[in-house]
Amino acid sequence: xRIIRPATIDSLDLTLDSSNVPDVPPSAYAGxxxxxxxxxxxxxxxxxxxxxxxxxxxxxxxxxxxxxxxWWLYLCExxxxxxxxxxxxxxxxxxxxxxxHAYQALVDAESGNSLSNAAxxxxxGPTNRYNMFDQSNSSQTANGESIDVSMTVDGRADSVSVLxxxxxxxxIIMTTDDDGEIYNETFNLVSDSGVNNWxxxxxxPVVRKGDITVYDLPLNADPTFRVIVSEPGETAKVGSLIxxxxxxxxxxxxxxxxGITDYSKKETNEYGDFTIIERGFAKRATYKIAIDEVKxxxxxxxxxxYRATPVVFVGVEQYASTWIFGFYKDWTIQFxxxxxxxxxxxxxxxx
Length: 351
Hints:
Elements: E1 2-7, E2 14-19, E3 34-35, E4 40-44, E5 50-56, E6 61-62, E7 72-79, E8 93-96, E9 101-105, E10 121-126, E11 141-153, E12 159-163, E13 169-176, E14 180-188, E15 190-191, H1 198-203, E16 207-208, E17 212-214, E18 224-238, E19 240-248, E20 251-262, E21 265-268, E22 274-277, E23 281-291, H2 296-305, E24 311-316, E25 319-337, E26 340-349
Antiparallel strand pairs: 1-19, 1-24, 2-11, 3-6, 4-5, 5-7, 8-9, 9-10, 11-18, 12-17, 12-19, 13-14, 13-18, 15-16, 20-23, 21-22, 23-26, 24-25, 25-26
């Protein structure tokens, strides 16, 4: 069992240096403009507040409609930045680059009221760019073909977890100002789990890993991590990106169990017909962990410190189903005999 303590943007020990995920919409697309390779343009949608963002994939791009995939790559949807001098209609959505949240107008002809005014604006949560840094594993950052972010840690970090992904590969690059590049690895996300014979190899659908955790990285001070999640020809998605320092607790042993809590709604009518509303779910686990008795005080103090902080629990390294980003509900330490101690933990993940 290993626990990764996240560095977070909110606590100011993690800084997002760059991201290729659009935030504020770029300039509106103009058919008479010549776009270079990599230039971006936006198109306002019929609702009057949603912008679709496109990126030119060739140079000398003039007069080609943004729907022409030979010339343009669709990235994602976003919203305009809030302007106190603008009058907004009911249900209009804006974003704040200060809080990195999106907000929806609760009244018509809204103008001049702060986004913190709950009677006027509904906080919808993080923007698309920042979804991967919130405390929900199901809300995903999405971007056409790739998500490429660079973050600097104030202090030290030796672990990276990328969870709830839709991607073909993940590349992790670690650098420091003093040492340059100190780690660079690309991971293919095709999963071979459950493929035990040639029939399954050739005929079972290709399954990809949705989670990856890397630890024991160099503990150089103030590192910068670049994480590139790639999904060529499709939309890359990430539910959670966690960077932090890990700590080994012990070894998960029997009896231990894993499962989920499903928040979907299932109802039957008088004829026995089901109505199912699919909702989020959260991982859960109960682990028995063999620990070193001389570390009991240190482990107890460590766990108490993170009693109200989401962390990554890596139960068994080779089984991603045992990894949980969330909280522990309860823990106890049993002393079975001389030099024999066991930590019993019950954990629940974020939805």
